[in-house]
Amino acid sequence: MGGIFLLAAIIILLASFIQLPDFSQFHGRKIVESTKIYDRTGKILLYDIHENIKRTVITFDTISPLLKNATIAIEDATFYQHPGINIKSIIRSMRANILGGGWRQGGSTITQQVIKRTLLTSEKLITRKLKEIILSFKLENAFSKDEILGFYLNEAPYGGNIYGVYEASNAFFGKNPSDLSLVESAYLAALPNAPTYLSPYGKHKQKLEDRKNFVLKRMYILGFITNQEYEDARIKKITFLPKELHGIKAPHFVIMVKEYLTEKYGERAIQENGYTVKTTLNYDLQKRAEEVVNIFSPQVEKKFNVKNMALVAIDPQNGQLLSLIGSRNYLDVKNEGNFNVATAQRQPGSAFKPFVYSTAFMKGYTPETILFDLPTNFSTHCNSFGVSIITEIKSDKCYTPEDYDGKYRGPVSLRNSLAQSLNIPSVKLLYLAGINDSITTAQKMGITTLTEPDRYGLSLVLGGAEVSLLEITGAYGVFANDGVYNPTQFILSVQNKAGEIIEEFKESSTEVLSGQVARQITSILSDEEARAPQFGSQSALYFKDRDVAVKTGTTNDYRDVWAIGYTPNITVGMWIGNNDNTPISKNPAGRIVAPVWHAFMEEAFKLTKNERFVAPETEDVSSLPAALRGVWQSGEKDGLIVPEVHSILYWINKDNPRALLNQNPQDDAQFNLWEEPLRRWVTEKNIKEGVVPQLPNTNYSLPTFLVSGIDFIKTYPTNELLTITATSTEKFVLNRADFYINGQLIEKKTQQPFSFSFTPKNISFISKNNDLTIIGYDSNSNSNVYTGKLIVIE
């Protein structure tokens, strides 16, 4: 109580010294000196925050009681009891602000908020607070509570140029304030606290939803609504009308800028402080982007059942955002056109692969490195046939990715694998490069959304983690800029009404890749010959007279298609899909998004210099292991002899591929899963192998063994006990044998005799004609496969 009397005494004392604004100005309040947002030239006005200001004053009795109660519940529960200020709230906020080293916290009543919005500046000083308190007392003496609440509801900001409940009610819901429902009232009451941040047209719609629910909860607690009304309103869905655009250009870009300014300088500051903001937007390029999207959108929707697209263009040499389209039509409320998909998290498909390949190159792998594109299961819970070896785990949990066309190409270089966007070699490369290291690479290049590495697994390389178009386009700029990362920025300068520069663009460059690695990626992504087998010659990815690198991406479920490409001076990313995540037609990105992306690049070339890529340095690979040199078969290159065909895990240490050969490949959990399909492929293709005479080490040779116990042309009754035995030849010694029936592992034997006994009727998946497979291994995990038929009858 003593504190209250002390505060009152201080207010009375200081009131005699503080010059107060003219209270008679209250009725003539005007909003002046609004923030203006310009393009990069400073000449094209993109948006004046208070241009065409909309405010219609209405009488108190034409406002729904629901909105009045919702406002009181969230803003000032004791409004009808206090004399204009809430002493306890003021003391609490003063204590918090003093301890916090400044005047930050509120504690204002509705009366105080009316004063702040009508007569005072937005400066955060104690003297301004005292003026506010004194004027609040005067306002309470001059007007009734209902009149003051009416002032508030007619003055409250609801975002952009909308002020007062009449304009807000009509703009958002198409109805007068007297007809508002409970839910609509709660939404309107939630907005004035932060109308830009909480805008139903912005990217924080869930925050608006949370605050709306908080308003409803407060109304219930204060007895304004029943529990049933609260529960019904909390789950009721409301559709906002599309936003009216008044003199706004590049709306998604402008709203992103406005949200940034609001967060940094405060809501009132950008409304009233007269800032002049010069952005990085190239409006000529923006208009061309909008034209391309408008031309292609109808035909893309008709052909591929896709309703939306987004585009981002960035200067990789400084990180400046040149163009941004967040949707094909900002006003298309049915398809959430106001939502900025360029900042949303979506799966990038194969567009993520370059981050993994660049990680591998940093570790010492080369574009010539050979991996095998063969049917491969990567789950250690399953065998190489993709069949579970653990009873509790179903075979559909095995991970056996496929390429888009369902083909298997055998040995492929990393250059061809990335250029043709092959999945199986890319998953193998992620295993070699490491999931965590690949994520670290992407993070250093500007991707901030990769926060759950345990969830992604090896599917990360195929786009199993979500990114935003804005961030991944900026990250590709690192490849364009010889390994140097420039964070994406969209403000060139902010100037206050006194003409002072209070914020200015500053370059912030960091080298995150070596120039050699960046150029290797660029060389691959611009290699027309390397990608032609998959995309065709002179596809939409090709430009006759320009150096352009590009990567597409398609998610497995056909919900997102991407094209991200660059020259040395512009990086452009495009996304096409549906905001509601419904699938599009089953076509790759090369058919859907690439033609649109190509059309925009042609327009961008009219405004940018024709610069050439710098080629990567030619490396002497003669001392590298054969697999890194592109040699996988005897006598294929440089006279190098590889006695046998093996997966790369046989030859190298995956974490240090340029070091000594791998001494214990069988210790790697993936070794047999990669090796066994390869050995089957070697047998199927009749690949010639042999021991080099001058090499005394016979570990390179295939183990050979004999199979006995079953006559594979004989028919056996299902109740007969059968025994199959694998026996080493004199030259080679087996140390393990795996027995399969119809592709399912039946038993593993790790010591002699390598025999397996069984009665056919006891095997649930036995049929009349059965495939019997035995894989034998020697001490170095070299393997050979024996196959035969087992015929049984009842």
User: Biggest sheet: strands side by side, in what order?
Assistant: 2-1-5-11-12
The overall strand count is 24
The CATH homologous superfamily of the largest domain = DD-peptidase/beta-lactamase superfamily
Percentage of residues in helical conformation: 25-40%
CATH topology of the largest domain: Beta-lactamase
Query: Uncertain spans, ≥5 residues at pLDDT below 50?
Result: 99-106, 691-700
- The total number of structural domains is 3
| CATH class placement of the largest domain | Alpha Beta
Large-scale geometry? elongated
> What does the average pLDDT come to?
86
Please give the CATH architecture of the largest domain: 3-Layer(aba) Sandwich
N→C terminal distance:
98 Å
Strand content: 15-25%
For the largest beta-sheet, the strand count, sense and barrel status come to: 5 strands, mixed
Total helical elements: 26
Radius of gyration: 35 Å
Look at the helices and sheets and give the structural class.
alpha+beta
